[in-house]
Design goal:
This protein is an alpha/beta fold. Helix content is 34%, strand content 22%. Strand 9 and strand 10 form a beta hairpin.
Length: 292
Amino acid sequence: MNSNKKNNDGKELCMSGKGVTKIFGLGNNKTVAVDHVDFDFYSGELVSIVGESGSGKTTLVKMLLGLISVTEGEIDFMGKKRDISTRSKKKEYWKGIQAIFQDPFSSYNIFNKIDTVLLDCINMRGGHGLSKQKKIEMMTEACSFVNLKFEELTNKYPFELSGGQMQRLMIARIFLLRPKILLADEPTSMIDACSRATILDMLMDLRNETGMMIIFITHDIGLAYYVSDTVYIMEHGKFVEFGTADDVILRPGADYTKRLISDVPKIYEPWDFSKKEVQVKIPIQKKQGVTV
């Protein structure tokens, strides 16, 4: 593959996949969780992968992160075939790709204090030899980016924070690590509406600050339209439709996409639970930032 491949906007190809498949089990008991999907993700892009529970979204994320193996197909990272065959190669790969998961309460080692969480990020980026004062400055800057005060967090454990604060601390980690790709797997689904808007705004700011690409995993097609450059629709392990957010949401071709759109509640009209007719109505307007 050509490592200099770019899209029409001149953005470099960060990650691509061809025929990526994951099968669990054998014979009659096998389950095809992800079924021969192809994708191209470009630098600075915000991509949403949308589908219902069980569609294969999280399984795909785990393969992209290298947490589970790929049954078939190939994944290329930064123009080269991905090689995570050894522990050292996998650790090097993780410098370029990181994740924020759905449940902030299970994302941390309960025995590690916040200082350790942030110091690990600095050390992972080669900061072992930095002075203690410099490391404190970096941790303070990262916390400030997500509207947290490091002096109020030092010597505390993550479980002493609220769910929204824990997700903001995860974003502070990403600020320090500065990976090429961030996988955000339903990062706002377990926090309240006010915190949700704050987290989304911070993710957008992080992309603008660092130029990283973000892969947003969600079942919320309205949110995907609101924040995304490109949208992939996933059903039963396959991408049934993909394209720009406007093309996929305003001019859907797949029946599954139309059904997802019809399921979005609309506060200005009575809810129709019969689903006899599918109408595409997206009353929101896309913005650079995210507000609620």
